[in-house]
Amino acid sequence: MISRALAATGLLPALLLAAPSAAGSAATAGAAPTPGAFATASAELPPQEVWAELTFRDWPGRWVAGTITDGVSKSSSGGPVTVTSATPSLCEVQQGSGHAFTVRFLDGGTCLVHAEADGDASWAPSSNEWHLDAESKQISRLSGPDRVATSIASSRFLHPSTRQAAGALIATTTGFADALAAAGPSVVREWPLLLNPSDHLDPRIAGELTRLLPPGSQVTLVGGRSALGDAVEAAVRALPGGYDVRRVAGDDRYATAAALIAENGPPTVGLPYSGPLYLVSGTDWPDGLSVAPLATQTWGAVLLTGPGATLPAATRVGVDAAVAAGREVVAVGGPAARSWPQATRTIVGTDRYDTSRLVSDRLVVAGQRGTPRRVVFASGTSWPDALVGATVAGQESAVDDTQGPLLLTAPDGLREATRAALRTLDPDRIYEVRLSGGTSALTPALEAQVRAAFVVRPEGTPPPAQAAG
After folding, report:
1. Using 50, 70 and 90 to split pLDDT, how confident is the model at 278?
2. Do 356 and 290 meet the contact criterion of CB atoms below 8 Å apart?
3. CA–CA distance from 356 to each of 21, 275, 376, 379, 449 (Å)?
4. pLDDT at residue 442 in the model
5. Which residues are 244's β-sheet partners?
6. Are 153 and 144 in contact (CB under 8 A)?
């Protein structure tokens, strides 16, 4: 496994995979040279073995089932190198023009790439093998028996070891508004967003904070005392970690969202973010959760629009600041587009699933962290599960560097809009597939369709026919 630190050096695209085999490195002593090949005394020397090296372009960060990566070959004789797969069940190799070739990993395991280097009068042909370790594609659920447990499951996925996070956010289980506003900051800070009842600290949340955070870490309560009461705050303060407990709240959900932006890091050109400002409805949740990974990966922020095509005062202040700073203002979803018709760009689909698709397509185009390697599916009818999915989708975990979109789907099957989003993403390049929520939120039938969409098939093999979801 290549470390995240090595990946950051930029050396991987030209990584030399292996030195050639030493086996047979010298030709048999006394082998007769090709007649007429030499006109000097060097004709008495036996031919030297050809050596070959392989390098790869477009390094994907890791080899996994489904990865397609291009390579180039080089031989010491200057002649051609034929590259083939010695393990055709695990990987395919397609020879291109010149010295180019492509490896396509079909499954996890050790792929053997076989290189035959051509020879001539002074270079003896030889063959070498390279061992390429690939991982299987990961397809799994993040879920628990209730919304509290599901939020903890996402926290443990992102931070599997103790004392791994620098902080945590807590929002109420009883309404989506504060959690919607906190989804983006959760991804930016790489902090988990935990859901807790309004009137007491759930013992499971207390246990997760103790497991997750080093002593003195920050714990942010999102929303006023009607969302998370004094008893919750007092219980967090009483935990043995001695946490720095803060509350971020405004007079209403719109002001709370604006206050969260202000807490979201050091100002850049007068604003605490450097990318676009995304506007989403504050009276419904699907568009806001769909856009959270995109906002994070484009270094943007999210504010909420009001009911009836209104722009609340706190949101208007944020919009005016963004416009004055020359930032894009992007309206996501029909309600937001109606609230701010002057938007630089609108992302509006025919329904929540189509808007989710358009947001995912935009992430592929505008994302600044490379090819998406993770996709998270969540129900378009259950905000707690979608919230968990949004915080996981765009966030680097403590053990890998995959990010990607959140795709909302009908609970019982993939809509055509979702299938279209997958075609843009290219399922072969996705490493992690997560389903957020239990089988009541995303049914086994839906899971079967998702798994079928991400099966790795040999080149040219058509996918099985499926009924439209």
Report:
1. very high
2. yes
3. 50, 20, 12, 11, 18
4. 95
5. 218
6. yes
Which residues are paired to 124 by β-bridges? 49
Q: Identify the sign of the CA torsion 208, 209, 213, 215.
A: negative
Kindly tell me the burial class for residue 333, based on how many C-beta atoms sit within 10 Å of its own C-beta (0-12, 13-18, 19 or more). buried
**What DSSP state is assigned to residue 59?**
-
Give the mean pLDDT of the chain: 83
Q: How far apart are CA 257 and CA 369, in angstroms?
A: 25
Strands 100-105 vs 68-75: parallel, antiparallel or unpaired: antiparallel
Are 46 and 29 in contact by the 8 Å Cβ rule? The answer is yes
Tens of pLDDT, residue by residue over 138-171, are 888 999 999 999 999 999 988 998 898 999 999 9
CATH, range 4-25+48-134: 2.60.40.1080
The backbone torsions φ and ψ at residue 5, rounded to the nearest 5 degrees and listed phi first, read -65, -40
pLDDT at 30: 36
Model pTM score: 0.75
At position 246, the amino acid (one-letter code) is: R
DSSP 45: S
Locate the DSSP E strands across 157-300: 167-172, 193-196, 218-222, 244-248, 277-281
User: So where are the chain's domains?
Assistant: 4-25+48-134, 138-453
Give the pLDDT confidence of 402-455 residue by residue, as tens digits: 688 999 999 999 999 999 999 898 777 787 899 999 999 999 999 999 988 887
3-state helix, strand, coil in the chain (%, to 5): 30, 25, 45
For residues 325 and 300, the answer to whether their CB atoms sit within 8 Å is no
